[in-house]
């Protein structure tokens, strides 16, 4: 896992390539239309027709290197390669390492790069490409065509470096959620807010309803402690606010440093985050005062909701995995102990902040190109969903079958990020230079909370830290 998860096919395929029947191994039987069928990740037959353009890759091997090292997390990825292997004859060798981010640049420079690598942050993708321009292979025609067809243009733009396309989208997560207890809301008569004004009104109502002698219970709970990455949850707050007080275009300008970090719009966004995070009436339910936000582990920060000492907690879709840590019996559902609603904006359709992973190729070969084409296809997204029976994963591929997403929060996330009218932007700090995105931005937001540093001073310090061109 990265700090925030928290953290193309790179050559064109030959148009006339066809899959030899022998490429599907293991006693496969012909499928309708003359293609070959083999076992799918969900136990059903795999229709190999969609794989025919990849050609017969028997005897070829593609190496994949990722930060996903534990067997439990790696197995779904490995299983999702099965249809590709059975229908093309290629073999995929998977390697996960907890030292991924330190080792990958070393391996690339030493000429020992993997064929493919899953990159957890676009900032790292940008650095790898710029520092190793002759060793990273641009996305080729097949994968580019898939991304153009099945993904919103935004996802392609994140993988671009200096006008060339290098990184294809792999996984995705939605960050703009507020977790709450449906049972408690029903008991108290609280309604889900649809706009920012309604969210603030609800916060005020909850604060007013708390007995005067109860100094522990508050409307909100939060935590930004994350070891060496302390501060990143606060940057997510600011990014969400930038999408709400400014325009998507201003967000892009901010991330690309086309406007300074201490621009009035950015200062307004930080202050809007502070209207909750630095409001004594609102925080920090069950955990203490404002400054405890800086020392509360982000993994635990929402738990007071289960004890009735907090009512709302802003955190990403991936936080769903944390609730059973606090209470193995906690039901995460629309009518259960805990659930989430989209963080409201100024309109009924709020913008969505997202995170995700991307894949880079380091070898120019048909089998590598074929695997990346597969990774951008509906076949892979659906195979990966089938191979993830415990949920907690989704793709932004428009042809992913949402019924294959077993967790309700994953289904809601998918609907939000693929909606026709969705305004979606990638995590800003992940796109910024690491000295800022994983450096001064994290640090200054921590000082902003822990030391009471002013918004203007924090924003100016971050602006000063931005690397000079």
From TrEMBL:
Keywords: Signal, Transport. Residues 1-23 form the signal peptide. PROSITE patterns: PROKAR_LIPOPROTEIN. The keyword Repressor does not apply. Belongs to the bacterial solute-binding protein 1 family. PANTHER family: ARABINOSE-BINDING PROTEIN-RELATED (PTHR43649), OSMOPROTECTIVE COMPOUNDS-BINDING PROTEIN GGTB (PTHR43649:SF29). This is Carbohydrate ABC transporter substrate-binding protein. It comes from Propioniciclava sinopodophylli. The lineage of its organism: Bacteria, Bacillati, Actinomycetota, Actinomycetes, Propionibacteriales.
